[in-house]
Design a protein that fits this description.
Length: 324
């Protein structure tokens, strides 16, 4: 990682101002890594601006808004109307995202030099004109990377930002389960040293009971396709995030070692999110179906097929692979 941080240091020195942008519907990993980057960059005596649409902030729960108020560090936010006021030689930094479709505000990507830092599986639509790109899909979260970057830069982050980062790691690893290494725990320890607060963290991770009940109802309809693989079919229109959440949650149950969740992303596309605790390679199955991913974390999107057809295909592939 040191090589990366050295490289980032050199890049930061070349610019006066920085716009940090995460993905649409930012989660705590996207938000935390953006905030952490702002604070680190300012330690270089540079200007850092967080690109955040206020309307997105409203969607956050009360607790995240309150956390913003508790922050001692002044974070300057810009949005689609105000980012043009940023002066000086400016670099756009994307964190937790690498495609135009998923960034908070795509237009900005064409207006500045940009670099990409991400841990999602590389999509073929990645933004091609970046000056520098670091994508490590084995990394638990951007929060983990930024915790190390802060530590490397001798920046002790604001305790609220450290807390958001810790919550970001917790969300992206499904509570220190997926993609968790000794480095992940070390990052958590770094953040605790910086003052991350476990009560505030729990507040940040609270969700609405409605969301919970909805997910529980999906989970209730899931079924086993082998003695250790579960499947959930969602007939509502849902986001890919919901599909991932259901698949991840299924892994918490006895006997389930892998899970597939299918749902309608829009009128013509069905999304599949696949998760495994490690022994069953769900990445192979998703690749076979035109998607991508890792052995424990993979997905695909399919047009022009019914849920039933896709279900049949997955079951067939699962049985083929288990036989092999
Ligand atoms: Mn993330």
């Amino acid at each position: 990682m040191e090589e990366l941080f050295l490289k980032l240091n050199l890049i930061i020195k070349e610019y006066d101002s920085f716009i940090i942008m995460g993905h649409k519907n930012p989660d705590l990993d996207s938000l935390g890594s953006s905030l952490g980057l702002c604070e680190i960059i300012e330690s270089f005596n540079k200007k850092a601006y967080l690109f955040l649409n206020d309307k997105h902030l409203e969607k956050y729960n009360e607790n995240i808004n309150q956390a913003f108020n508790k922050m001692k560090k002044d974070i300057i936010c810009v949005n689609e109307n105000t980012y043009k006021n940023v002066t000086g030689k400016t670099l756009l930094i994307l964190t937790d995202v690498h495609t135009k479709e998923r960034v908070e505000y795509p237009q900005v990507c064409d207006e500045y030099d940009l670099i990409i830092l991400d841990h999602h599986i590389k999509n073929k639509n990645y933004i091609k004109n970046s000056k520098f790109m670091y994508i490590d899909s084995n990394l638990s979260s951007m929060s983990e990377l930024i915790a190390y970057f802060a530590n490397y830069s001798n920046v002790s982050l604001d305790y609220v930002i450290a807390t958001i980062l810790l919550a970001g790691i917790e969300i992206d690893t499904n509570s220190f389960n997926l993609k968790t290494t000794n480095k992940t725990y070390e990052a958590a320890s770094i953040l605790m040293d910086m003052g991350a607060d476990s009560i505030l963290k729990q507040e940040l991770l609270k969700e609405s009971m409605d969301d919970y009940v909805k997910r529980a109802n999906y989970i209730k309809t899931s079924f086993m396709i082998t003695d250790n693989i579960a499947m959930c079919l969602i007939n509502d229109k849902v986001s890919d995030i919901t599909l991932a959440e259901v698949s991840e949650e299924l892994l918490n149950f006895e006997d389930i070692e892998a899970s597939f969740t299918l749902g309608k992303l829009n009128n013509s596309t069905i999304g599949v999110s696949a998760r495994s605790i490690g022994k069953i390679d769900v990445g192979m199955i998703m690749k076979e179906m035109g998607g991508g991913g890792h052995s424990s974390n993979a997905a695909c999107q399919i047009n022009g097929k019914t849920m039933k057809e896709i279900k049949g295909e997955i079951i067939r592939l699962v049985k083929d692979i288990l036989k092999a």
